[in-house]
Predict the structure of Methionine adenosyltransferase domain-containing protein.
Amino acid sequence: MQKTAEAVSLGHPDKTADYISCYILDRMLEQDKDVKYAAEVLIKDNSVVLGGEISGDVSFEHLPKYIKQALAEIGYDERYASVWGDFAVNPNKLNIINLMGVQSSDISRGVKADGWGDQGVFVGYACRGENNLNQELFLAKKLNDALYEKARKSDNWGLDIKTQITMNDNVIETAIVAIPMLQDEDLTDFIVSVLGTRPRNIIVNGTGRYTYHSTVADCGVTGRKLACDFYSTACPIGGGSPWTKDPSKADLTLNVYARILACENLADNDECFVYLSSCIGRTELPSGLIKTIKHGVVSYQNLWINHRPSTLIKALGLDKPIYTRLCKMGISGVTPQNSHISLQI
C-alpha cells in the first residue's frame, strides 16, 4: 500500500511566516512571561503584514528588527541576498505593515481565571518507528533537514525546499525534491546517502527549473503547512495553527500534550491516537480519549484531564521563549524526551 508524506524547510514562505510569528512571541515572552499573543503573519515579496492581538507589559518598538533577525536565523540574510538578488526575499528591502491590536476583554477574563483561552479539538499520534513517526514522514523530514543544512552554506542551493516520500510495502517508491538552484546539479548520490537506500524513482525540480523562490515566488501565510508540522495523512490535524499563539490558547499546548500522551501510551501497540478538547474560560477538558491499534484490533480508554492551564504550561516549559525551536521541530518532532512534561494522568 502506498503512503506519502511531505516536509518543507523554514525557507518555505509559509514556514517563514510561522517562524516570524514564533520569533516575535519569544521576544515578547522575554519581556513578559504572561504575555497574551495571537499574531498572524503574511509575507509576500519584501512586504510583511502582522495582524492579531498582543497584550502585556511589552514593547512593539523593535518589531522591524525582530522580523529581520528571524529572517536571518532562517538564512535569508545579506549574504543570501547578494547571491540570489531578485530571486528571493531581501531583508534590506522590508516593508512592514502592523495591524496588531489588544486581546479582547471577553477572552482575557476567562484566561485570568486560569481557564483555556479558546475552545478546540486536538489530536496526538505515535506509531512504531524512529521517533515514533510513520516512516514516510520521518524520511521526508530527514531528507529535508539534510538539504536545508547544506543549502545554508551553499552559493548554489536555495533555502525554499520541499521533499516528498512515497513508501510502498516498506520500500521507498518515490522521492521528490524541490530545491532552488542557480546551476543544475545531480542530487542522486546525496539523496541516496541520506535515505540509506536508492528510491525506485527520484524526481528533482519537476518543472525542470526552480530559481524564483521564497516570498518572491509565493505568498507565505501562517498555519498553511500543518500537515507537514503534524503527522501528514496518518492522523487528523487538531486545533488551529500552533505557531501564532501564546500557550493559553491551547492550539500549541494541548497538541503538544496530546503528542506526548500518544508516545507514552504507545507501549507495544502499532499506533496510538489521543483526542482532547477544550472549552474557553474553563479548566477541565470536556473530553479525552486514547485509541490504540495492535494487529488491527482497536482499543479505547477514556481520559479525564483537569490540569490548570498554568500548571500544564509550566510543566511543558511553554512559559519560556522556546517557540522558534518548536517551530523548527514541528508538533510531530516532540517526544517525552525533548519536552519538560512530568505530569501523570
